[in-house]
Amino acid sequence: MSDGFPDLPSLNALRVFEVVARHLNFRVAAEELGVTQAAVAQQIRGLEAGLDLRLFERLPRGLALTDAGQGYSASIRSALAMIDEATRLLKPQASHLTVSVTPTFASKWLIPRLGDFAQNHPDIDLRVLATDRLSHFSTDGVDIAVRYGKPDFGAGLNSELLMEQRIVAVASPRLFDGSEVPVSFEQLQGFIMLHDAHNFWPQFLADMFPQHAQPTARNLRFNQTSLAIEAAVNGQGIALASLAFVGEDIAAGRLIQVFTRQLRLDKSFYLVWPRKMKQPDSLSLVQHWLKQQAVDS
């Protein structure tokens, strides 16, 4: 009886082959794997050289599996699925899922709702990665992200609308002690405008007061929306923020909506996750919970 598997190709090469066979595109495969397109091509060349046969036909527009590649692809996919299942069964502990969000989204929307999630899904270990940097799904171990913008978010990624962005002007009710809430552009100039990195004030003023003059209000600027909101709660001025981020502060009386008008933007909050053959079982549960929370907020 022979020892081991002397003719077995590297497991990494087989994993790359499975992804390329699924997408028939080196660039999309590289995106899913979190490596360069050149690294993917090198792995496939090495695998073909080791097997001494062609697995792919290189076409002017993409790739096609050869007959040998077609059969090999089905077998390798099945084998990798068996390895994945065997590995998963070794770890019966709570299912892990990592969600990537911005610090403001975490502190002003997600964290206040996490108690509900933990109560309803005690078997899922939800990990929150809060960063202003654009997290990479593969290298950062992220399963799903909330991203602000417009589709398309990149090759190999799925996206689904979570909630639209509606910008409102908010301030502490204490800011208006002894004075009226501003209703005109001129009255607004008597207050400090609190800015974040998005700098929505010029657009908000143009939408609210189309013929407005040059603003003379004093300004305070912050690099994160959550800081501008905290400054508003502390009575330091008027901030612009997504209604989703200030809804609880308004309900609790810490903030009031200064104008009834809302600024609607063409960018929204989206759920984004990588296309994979096998998704974590917990992914669909977390997606459903996030969408339900957005409906209720």
Backbone CA Rg: 26 Å
The assigned structural class equals alpha/beta
Whole-Å distance between the termini?
65 Å
Indicate the proportion of strand residues.
Answer: 15-25%
H and E order: HHHEEHEHHEEEHEHEHEHEEH
Salient structural properties:
297 residues; alpha/beta; LysR_subst-bd; elongated; 11 helices; two-stranded antiparallel ribbon; 23% strand
What's the topology here?
Blueprint: H1 11-23, H2 26-33, H3 37-51, E1 56-59, E2 62-65, H4 67-89, E3 95-101, H5 103-110, H6 114-120, E4 124-130, E5 144-149, E6 157-171, H7 185-188, E7 193-195, H8 201-208, E8 219-221, H9 225-233, E9 238-242, H10 243-251, E10 256-257, E11 263-274, H11 281-296
Parallel strand pairs: 3-4, 3-5, 7-8, 7-9
Antiparallel strand pairs: 1-2, 5-11, 6-9, 6-10, 6-11
Helix pairs in contact: 1-2, 1-3, 1-4, 2-3, 5-10
Structure description:
The protein has about 300 residues and is an alpha/beta fold. The protein has helices spanning about 10-25, 25-35, 35-50, 65-90, 105-110, 115-120, 185-190, 200-210, 225-235, 245-250, 280-295, and strands at about 55-60, 60-65, 95-100, 125-130, 145-150, 155-170, 195, 220, 240, 255, 265-275. Strands 3, 4, 5, 6, 7, 8, 9, 10 and 11 form a 9-stranded mixed β-sheet that branches. Strand 1 (about 55-60) and strand 2 (about 60-65) form a beta hairpin. Helix 1 (about 10-25) crosses helix 3.
